[in-house]
Amino acid sequence: MTATIARFIFPHRSGETGLTVSLFDAGGDAELNGAGDALTETAQANGVFEATITEAIEGDCRYTVDDGATIIEHGTIVLADTVGPFIADDVVARIERSGGMVDGVRSVLAGITRLSSWMRAIARGDTADAVAMSELNTGGGSYDPELSSLEASSGVTSGVRRKLTIEATTDGTSGVGGVAFQLAGTSLKAFTNENGEAEFHLADGSHTFIVTPPGLYITEATVTIEIDGEDKTYSVSLLLPVISEPTDPTMAAVHCYFKTPDGKPVVNGTVIARLPNHYAGLNGALYTSTRLESETDEDGYALLELVPNDRMYGEPIEQQQKPWPGMYTVECWSEGDLVWRRTDVIVEPGAQMLR
User: Fold this and answer.
1) Whole-angstrom Cα distance, residue 180 to residue 161?
2) CB atoms near residue 148 (< 10 Å)
3) Exposed end of the chain (fewer CB within 10 Å): N or C?
4) pLDDT (tens digit, 9 = 90+) per residue, 108-159?
5) CB-based burial, 212-233: b 16+ in 10 Å, e otherwise
6) More confident site: 10 or 171
7) How far apart are CA 22 and CA 77, in angstroms?
8) Same domain assignment for residues 246 and 343
């Protein structure tokens, strides 16, 4: 029998001395290596211990690691008559799994000094730890817990949430789908469904929303809603556009912001305004249909200047005429597809810009 090296890995025992290992038959209690063999930690001092077994022991064995009269570790090991080291199977398995888990956790948490500070910054809407904020925004980020944390995004920083249902209509009864309501100062946004309803869950208090209808509107409007102790339904009336340029009675300006139902701007879209053939103006003459075009920019914005036709039967007409009054049809096309259409844009010379 050549001396066999039995190796045991106990990272938590690193630095301990005076340990011995006793070997037993897997199915019995007889000690196979006399009074036990000394365990000596390797030079790396990383919790790897070795014992030199001189007895002729082969096969499955149970072992105990003893600190004096106290058993501090136990398990199984397979030995053979060879000079190569044999590692305690169950200990290696246990320690390797633990080490793998630790390495995995270290990898996942790389760059995080204190996880609790990160969690507070992500969840809470108050001022976060400066170190956590620096780590969160590494690489040029601009995360702000007061605007984008879970608390801030839900619109609730304290108190009980109430259900707020916002109804968007044009006449008080007909619902308008695709209207965006965004809680001012936060990223919390909801779009109305096909029935014209958007739902929020907010704390009691005064809440201001930015209202963005789909398609044409004069400017982004706001509405302030008060919640006081109970669920609430609030109706918002989207008035028909009545448009003109009060500083210049010879033209009307239609400011259009076109967005898709999911709130994205329609870029490089073609905007067309049409007023059907009509009798009006000089000497009761018949004027041709008014048709104006514009193109949306990267924000989905287009400006339509409504001016009278500059020709009548191919001849120029006077430019001092006011814009043709009436109900225009406004369309927005993108890549050959009609993405928005409204037939009730009213032009009244001298009126103020309304929405």
Assistant:
1) 21
2) 17
3) N
4) 777 888 888 888 888 876 677 888 888 888 888 888 877 777 776 665 555 5
5) bbbbbbbeeeeeebebeeeebe
6) 10
7) 11
8) yes
The answer on pLDDT for 255 being more than 90 is no
Residue 315 is predicted with a pLDDT of 40
* Total tally of structural domains belonging to the chain: 4
- Using CA atoms, how far apart are residues 64 and 302, in angstroms rounded to an integer? 83
Q: What is the CATH number of the domain that holds 207?
A: 2.60.40.10
Chain-centre distance for alpha carbon 183:
16
Q: Is the residue at 339 inside a domain?
A: yes
Cα 57 from Cα 78, distance rounded (Å): 9
Q: Which domain holds residue 88?
A: 4-106
d(CA 144, CA 187): 11
Sign (positive/negative) of CA torsion 146, 149, 153, 154? negative
Q: Which residues contact 304 (CB under 8 A, 6 or more apart)?
A: 253, 254, 256, 271, 273, 292, 294, 330
| Helix (H/G/I), strand (E/B), else coil: 100 | helix
Tokens of 233: 């339904």
Query: What's residue 277's pLDDT?
Result: 55
Q: Return the bridge partners of 51, or none.
A: 6
DSSP-assigned beta bridge partners for residue 233:
165
SS3 250: coil
Structure tokens at 102: 């630790």
Tally the residues of the chain.
355
Q: 232 and 249, same structural domain?
A: no
The token pair at 116 is 């609790």
* Rounded CA separation 154/175 (Å): 25
